[in-house]
Protein 1
Amino acid sequence: MTARTVLQPADISRALTRISHEILESNRGGSDLVILGIPTRGIELARRIGAILDEIEPGSGSVGFLDVTMYRDDLAGQPTRAPSPTQIPSGGVNGKTVVLVDDVLYSGRTIRAALDALGDYGRPRAVRLAVLVDRGHRQLPIRADFVGKNLPTSSEERIRVRLRDTDGVEEVTIES
Amino acid sequence: MSETNPTLLVVGAVLPNGSRTDILVEGGRILRTGTGLTAAGATVIDADGLTALPGLVDLHTHLREPGFEQSETVLTGSRAAALGGFTAVHAMANTSPVADTAGVVEQVASLGVRHGYATVRPIGAVTVGLEGQRLSEIGAMAQSRAKVSVFSDDGKCVHDALLMRRALEYVKTFDGVIAQHAQEPRLTEGAQMNEGALSGELGLAGWPAVAEESIIARDVLLAEHVGARLHICHVSTAGSVDVIRWAKARGIQVTAEATPHHLLLTEDLVRSYDSRYKVNPPLRRSEDVLALREGLADGTIDIVATDHAPHPVEAKECAWAEAAFGMVGLESALSVVQAAVVDSGQLGWADVARVLSAAPAAIGRLSGYAAPFAEGTIANFTLYDPAVRRSFGLEHLAGKGVNTPYLDLELPGRVVATIHDGYATVLDGALVDSSVVAASAVAASALVATRAAVARG
Amino acid sequence: MRHLLSTRDLDRATAVGILDVAEDMADVAHREIKKLPTLRGKTVINLFFEDSTRTRTSFELAAKRLSADLITFSAKGSSVSKGESLKDTAQTLAAMGADAVVIRHSASGAAQTLARSGWIDAAVLNAGDGTHEHPTQALLDAFTMRRRLHGSASRGKDLDGLRVTIVGDILHSRVARSNVWLLQALGATVNLIAPATLLPVDTSGWPATIGFDLDTAIDDDPDVIMMLRIQSERMNAAFFPNAREYSRQWGLDDERLARLRPDTMVMHPGPMNRGLEISANAADSARSTVLEQVANGVSIRMAVLYLLLSGSVKP
């Protein structure tokens, strides 16, 4: 197995900063924005994006997290997954622009589950998707609105995102 | 007669006393024993390496007929007996109608004679309908053609002290014995298993040892007071062994039996809630099992009796509390006894012959078993291979019941041949066809009548 | 998990895992849409040989909130009350394609018999078997205790050091048995208080201390006091002289209630006999967790159904 680093800490930081600016731009400001991270690493990425938003436009980074385990379509074929908590910011999601944040966009099934889950918490005005890495191989008609880096991969390869707070190191690697 | 019941020559069997002998059976009797015997035209059974035991006598069998033929019949039960090495069984009275009249016991006995796999000795009920209210016609049953000498309400305890006293006294008249199912009914209402740490954990209503021991204590004192014979069925606790040991030391005429399953299995099996292990009295602690083995070895427990209790499949395919009590035991008894007390060195084969043949025959007043293998006695014996081991399976059962607790357990020994009244009921480990056995029985019936006359004399 | 038959099989990690999943399930109850699609297409059968409206409806709600198809078989009026055997019923349910069977039965061990019989391939969930176990009740009790102790920070925690006193008919209580094993796995200590007639004759194998005197137990300052329901049929069977004497000796009355710390939890699996084993004030006091127990029951049963019915690899 060989591992190749494709994003260094500085690259990750730049990507998140850019994504944050793009979010503000497309939303025409920071009002009614809710940033929801998808476990596990999406939570940390959402927290960082929220912090950057707050820096640019104080009060704009309303951050929560959304567990999609109970909405997955592959529960039967896998070992039992332990769900993790969901935390919706106190303002709820009704009428808001919700930005879902995940580390890697691959088949699109996680995002499909996230859209279903989100629907059970309310009716956002719009839902956007931000990902650190888009590696292709979509199985559903889903695309990201904000992408840190597009990484064309073969499906045998594995993308690993590691973040300082969850993994001790900060990098994105391709393993094959 | 020789057409149906050919001369049999058993070559090279080892007797319970350890001596090696040939056995020549002719005309229903043991004609000769010794080495190097020959007989022209005889059916030869090679018994090299086999142990010859006297025909086993079960003092406690449920044949279920009449009334519960879906569970067992005299035919199927006595086939199970033959396959287990038994040549005589005592059929318990809890049939429908209950064996509380001469008519019922004569019917059961005659069915046994007709099928021919074993001598069937009916046990008479102590009380009418096993209801514990009035004595049944004990005298009529004793003097019937069935010549009943053992009386029992087994399945139920004769718990009324006065009635028990009267029963003990009354059977003296006919040289009978009361076989008591010792179970204090109020202490065992709804009982499901041995009462102790495990019953508390499993949430099953307890069957306390004291419910058995207190009845035994009462009854041995009653037997002493009235000078009667008392037999205790299926003793299951260490405390009961102590009480009986004490009673025997006082000279009380008490005999006692233990079942094969109580000599081998413990209550830990109940943890599975597998109803094959549900039996009355219940499986007890390992301390009790050890005490029973010790009691059997020192003579406190006189005999092993199977309490063979067949049930239809549906009676066991349900939740524990809804399942019937009881296990089948005839086919496995000898193997289980070997596993429990012979292989451990506590009993020799001469002891096995005593506890499974001579002693139960004596308690049941069954003649012809006092001097097995003596020349001139009616030939009732079994040839047993103690060296083999087998995983016990349904194919080793011959009765209707499949409720054996030994399934898939490795057990020692195998019955190779059973000779009843001079003819084979089992050969090469398999039952002889029922039409052949029935014909042999007809041929031997004259003999049986002769023997009965001897017994009366 | 393949089946949930008793709490005796649960180790600490598994038990904490179930409670953690239940935390997530509890959140669903506070949403506008109280439903998850997780068990869509799964069939759950409630097989109740014994009446129990509370437990049955709790399981029904749990299964429905997870979008499972649910059928309830009650003994009354159906073939199971007409002598049909457990085997026939099980095979019928198997033919209907049940994925999970929730069984309540008056015979101890019935759930285990069903699970081990080979009559049916479904996951078996014991909803109370005779006087043996009632594992989801113990789990919801532990969940309730943990939430009172740790609130929203409950995830991942056990009940280490918690001192629980259980009072009443221990002998016939499946709730007590399940609690004894589970609480011990979670690190709590258990004290059982009852008249000697209502204790098993030998409790040497139980990880609990045993006492007869409720007042002594209250003086020992327990963190939790759990009152068990006293069944009226016990009075007729001479387990104790009468209700008045039982209440005086082993009832949580107002005087005893006043001697408890303000934060001592008063628990009861329900339904309560107010004025017998528990006074109205005790049942309605701020210490009482009775209504939380009911709400938490749904969350625990959702968690267990999820863990039994999702995943192909059974740990």
Protein 2
Amino acid sequence: MDTFTVVLQVLDSTIRLSVPLLLACLAGLYSERAGIFDIGLEGKMLAGAFAAGAAATYSGSAYVGLLAAVLISIALGLVHGFASITHRGNQIVSGVAINFIAAGTTVILGQAWFQQGGRTPSLPNAARFNPIDLPGVETLSGIPVIGAIYSELISGHSVLVYLAFLLVPFTWWVLYRTRFGLRLRAVGENPAAVDTAGISVPWLRYRAVICCGLLCGVAGAYLATAQGAGFVKDMTAGKGYIALAALIFAKWRPVHAMFACLLFGFLDAIAIRMQGHPLPLIGEVPVQLMQALPYILTIVLLAGFIGKAIPPKAGGVAYVKER
Amino acid sequence: MSQPFAKLPAWADYGLLPLINLIVAFFVAGLVVLLVGESPIDAAVLMVKGAFGSGDGVGYTLYYATNFIFTGLCVAVAFHCGLFNIGGEGQAYIGGLGVAVVGLGLGNVLPWWITFPLAIIASGLVGALWALIPAWLQAKRGSHVVITTIMFNFIAASIMVYLLVGYLKASGTQAPETRVFGDGGQLPGLGWLLGLIGLNMRSAPLNISFLLALVAAFLVWVLIWRTKLGYEIRTMGYSPKAARYAGISEVRIIVITMMISGALAGMMALNPIMGAQHRVQLDFVAGAGFVGIAVALMGRSHPAGIVLAAILFGMLYQGGAEIAFDMPNISRDMIVIIQGLVILFAGALEHMFRPTLLRILQRVARVKSQPTPAVAAEGGQ
């Protein structure tokens, strides 16, 4: 196999592996920009993946699965909102709780409903998001390099992949060019100012939490019905936390978030690719090192060696209207 | 003006409110059991029977409780300083390295009563060092300790997998675990203790580290409420500004607190490794670090409450394993749900029932203090 094909394959799997990270990362971005820390990305994604797998099994439609995933994930997001906005509870504690509830419930319900050790039955292709060919693949396929890049790398992904990447400019536009986005950012920096302007802080934050739930649901549906064919126990495997790391890495900015997620996805793709393939000069790099690299990079960033990551100022603090 | 939450009487704050939160958590868990198609009441009966019905049941319950006391204390000490240490899982996992060094190196040479203190020091030290970097980043760089400890959990897991499939793996076996420690690396059981109260423990792995956990709980109480350092820790937790004004070094307190917290988590490794399996296995912590969060929240960060909450969760773990035999739809993952619900209701939603409870208590107090109507009428004239 020539180098070009290998590179293409690694980049292709980079895209596929970074999509759930990207969706979860953008989800966290909406929430954290509004001042609601969300450790519960992992749990919402997991619950979404289970809902998508289960609903797609029963209905035979990937879109019903997606809808179920989004609904469940939003519901969990609202629990987080109820605890941290309405009752001013500790946002981190609430997020941790959601992760555990999702981890336990998906396995228990999965085992009870499908009797396959916590997984949902394998989905037929009709109930999944299948790769779609973009227009022009045929005509371009004759051209040597560009044709291969277009057909292998850019075309041939599921619709959710394109959705995820389109959400990056969309999120940028929402955040920096709309009234809602301005208020969202303001409520994460200085909720008292937003309140003084006569805008409801709780309602704004609830909307942010709903956006977050929606995107986590899509991420979950991607895992269960596009990347995989059904839900598997502990399917997210820490992706929610990597997304969180990517969010910090990107300093809470949408376009940077995309690059951070691509970087972490690339590390993952390389790790899979390099299993058993020693590198020249260095020798075989342990898989565990590659798997830990996103976390190590984030720690290095947090240590201040690569710039400084400053979170939204009002993040993690419940807003008390008056006292 | 919105009312700040008034203070509840101590018995309601430390007894009634956690109880209400627990009942609500179990009620929701019961709904999940119903959803699965089993009877929640039968499940509860099975659970209690499995946890306390036999000598072995009690032995296992207390064995699990030992893990949770350590991790609960770990989370609680950090809570007192206003820090949320989610890294107990990773600190305990890495702490296993300290136990491994002592157990593998000296287990064949020295008797257990010499290796035990050495292992306590080693595991505590390794756990403390693992908490040092997040602590330093929090104190010096202001990067949130929650995020860094989560990252360190994953890094710890990667390191341990790397070591257990590589350097530490016993020769001649495929399993990713160390060789079995020599006699000196194995802690004596506590069957005699249960024998004192007429229970017969045959195979449960309850061992002397349970007593160490109780000692640790007492020492944490002394530390937090009876020493200058504990006072400084609590001041920092209440109001970092006040602490700074009083001349307490923020960096010093954060680093020391996190290291104590990490050391407590690290010592948890003694119980499964030296006490039960006598070797280091993959993922021996098995989520105990996270259970510690629920335990600390339920125990109100007080060592006495933590011991009780740890025994409750030990019961859930042991009883949950027993339920799985009779109700195949309910596995130990049920505990993860209960754990999550306890964290939700006792932690994030702790204020939900407080105003209502306060109102009820105030009304009761008013009714009690009011004289009977006849006397009141007389007194009015």
